[in-house]
Amino acid sequence: MGETEGKKEEADYKRLQTFPLVRSAAKMIKETMDKKFGSSWHVVIGEGFGFEITHEVKNLLYLYFGGTLAVCVWKCS
């Protein structure tokens, strides 16, 4: 295995380790938003994704956390 392949495997392994944390964070954000502002909230957290969604007016949040981790939260009823 070459050096580049080894680095890719290491990066993939690190992503897999953080996946449960990201999934738990998305679930927590959704549950909190549903409780505070009513149901129909959706949350996506990740790297390197695009989106085209329908959302209620003034009910969309899109930000980057730590430089590379994107968080998208929106309400669509």
UniProtKB/TrEMBL annotation:
Identify the keywords attached in UniProt to this record, alphabetized. Answer: Cell projection, Cilium, Cytoplasm, Cytoskeleton, Dynein, Microtubule, Motor protein
| InterPro entries, per database record | DLC_sf, Dynein_light_chain_typ-1/2
**Keyword Cytoplasm included in the entry's annotation:** yes
Q: Which GO terms describe its cellular component?
A: axoneme; dynein complex; microtubule
Function, as annotated: Force generating protein of respiratory cilia. Produces force towards the minus ends of microtubules. Dynein has ATPase activity.
Q: Which family is it part of?
A: Belongs to the dynein light chain family.
- According to UniProt, the name of this protein is Dynein axonemal light chain 4
- Name the gene for this chain: Dnal4
